[in-house]
Amino acid sequence: MRRKHAFVLLLTGVFFLSCAQSRQNKNKFEWGEIAHKPDFSWTENIGSRQLPDSTIIVSANTFGAIADSTVLSTDAIQKAIDSCALSGGGTVTFQPGYYQTGALFIKSRVNLQLDKGVTLIADTNMLSYPEFRSRIAGIEMDWPAAVINIIGEKNASVSGDGTVDCRGKVFWDKYWTMRKEYEAKGLRWIVDYDCKRVRGILVERSSDITLSNFTLMRTGFWGCQILYSDHCTVNGLNINNNIGGHGPSTDGIDIDSSTNILIENCIIDCNDDIICLKAGRDADGLRINRPTENVLIRNCTAHRGAGLITCGSETSGGIRNVLAYDLKAIGTSVVLLLKSAMTRGGTIENIYVTQVEAENVRRIFGADPNWNPKYSYSTLPEIYKNKEIPEHWKVMLTPVTPPEKGFPHFRNIYLSQVKATNVQEFISASGINDSLRLENFYLHAIEAQVQKAGTIRFTQNFNATGVKLEVPTPHSMLLEENAQDNIKIEYVQQNNS
User: Fold this and answer.
1) What's the first-to-final CA gap in the chain, in angstroms?
2) For residue 191, is it left (φ>0), alpha (ψ between -120 and 50) or beta?
3) Closest to 59 measured CA to CA, from 102, 81, 92, 18
4) pLDDT digits (tens, 9 = 90+) for 429-466
5) Considering only 5-14, 137-146, 240-249, 361-370, which range has the smallest mean pLDDT?
6) Distance CA 336, CA 328 (A)
7) How do residues 284-335 score in pLDDT, each as one tens digit?
């Protein structure tokens, strides 16, 4: 009992310490020559505001959960969760061991405690994951449950030093086989939706949710998706989706049309975006029109993955008010990545990323409003026309009207205090044309050892101050069609002796 009280006191202390750290760090940030001081007052009201009561302890083993990886314990664990909720809430615990499970549904006021030595092993049978309507990759459709689900609940948590092993390779292999077949048929744009794969954790339509300290590994699809939710904390997760294969679309953490989110102290290694902010895709995302906003990210480390911090490509509802600092990128593709498509719409704005250390990355900064056309745009091959097609195909094929409603906008982006070594390219940032420029970008106090500088084109008020690039040969950046820019970059030739 004392240990459970200590858990609550520890997390409560972490919460208040986090708020204090937020206040302390605001004065240490440097953004360069900017017109207005940023307003980070919203950071005082982010993250989960409460934790489940620890006075009631329920053992899943007393309900029949068996520490045997060959025995399915889904029903027993769910009964323990439900009983705990009916008793007014508390903590569900396990004896050390390996427990095989299908989809679990955490209820309000319940903490699922995975202590050190406890591992939940996901069943690979799709029948263990009932389908329901959710949002996946930007559109609403029927999709399998995650391994751990918190849906329509308040004040719930998953915590401890244990492990959730999602055993996703069976789904990875399924995807790569389908991908090859679909590309041959001109269906690259829909394969991700037809190939239904199991997410690791889903938090949907919930508030005051805390996920802390456990290891999440080998997820079949996205690692942790927080969808249509408010006041959630993700603290101390270790996500590793590159064990035993190449896991496609195995994002680490996806914040999807959600608000007041705190992500801190996480270590993530995956095949796709590390921490990704999303807000819906194309006509369906514009229909829902719900933003992701007020997100604080700090003290996180990214390893393999597409972007340490990624905004998009699902931008329809808008992504705004993001502060990220004290970050490391080691072998990550891009440090800060903004991406969308010309049918997506929405605005990415007020993004602040600072105090970053990077090594062995492909690029420090990328911005592309017309990202990955083969994936981003839906075109029905002639052979399927005048034939009955699945409902989600119709959703994907719904045009955005008028077309300009689908034009995305990137503005008020700040990246500063970055130190990086062994970088392939400093930047690739391009607007679309004279009327669709990248607006008000500020890069400041960046020192990087790079192979090449990169490209900046079609921008309005693009600023680069205090930027020092160590390059292998005398160098210059490709600058095209930029208006009112203030790009001051110092080039220093690398000493190869």
Assistant:
1) 63
2) alpha
3) 92
4) 999 999 999 999 999 999 999 999 999 999 999 999 99
5) 5-14
6) 12
7) 999 999 999 999 999 999 999 999 999 999 999 999 999 999 999 999 999 9
Predicted pLDDT at 496? 64
Other CB atoms closer than 10 Å to residue 1's CB: what's the count? 8
Written as six digits, the tokens of 77 are 């664990």
d(CA 126, CA 330): 34
d(C-alpha 460, C-alpha 483), whole Å:
5
- Name beta bridge partners: 4: none
Distances (CA, A) of 496 to 180, 207, 272, 470, 472: 43, 54, 33, 11, 8
* 468/493 Cα distance (integer angstroms): 11
Q: Which tokens is 340 given?
A: 């969308």
Q: Distance between CA atoms of 420 and 338, rounded to whole angstroms?
A: 19
d(CA 170, CA 124): 7
Distances (CA, A) of 345 to 338, 340, 392, 435: 13, 8, 20, 15
- R_g over Cα of the chain: 23
Burial bucket for residue 181 (CB in 10 Å: 0-12, 13-18, 19+):
exposed
Burial of residue 50, with CB atoms counted within 10 A of its CB: 0-12 exposed, 13-18 middle, 19 or more buried:
middle
Percent of the chain with pLDDT strictly greater than 70: 94
**Is this prediction's pTM over 0.90?**
yes
CA dihedral of residues 453, 459, 465, 468 (deg, nearest 10): 0
Kind of pairing between the strands at 253-256 and 90-93 = unpaired
pLDDT above 70 for 21: no
Q: Which residues lie closer than 8 Å to 173 by C-beta, 6 or more apart?
A: 245
Q: Which two tokens stand for residue 421?
A: 């070594």
Residues 6+ apart with CB under 8 A from 239: 200, 215, 216, 217, 219, 223, 224, 252, 253, 266, 267, 268, 269, 270
Whether the per-residue pLDDT at 7 is higher than 50: the answer is: no
Amino acid at 77: I
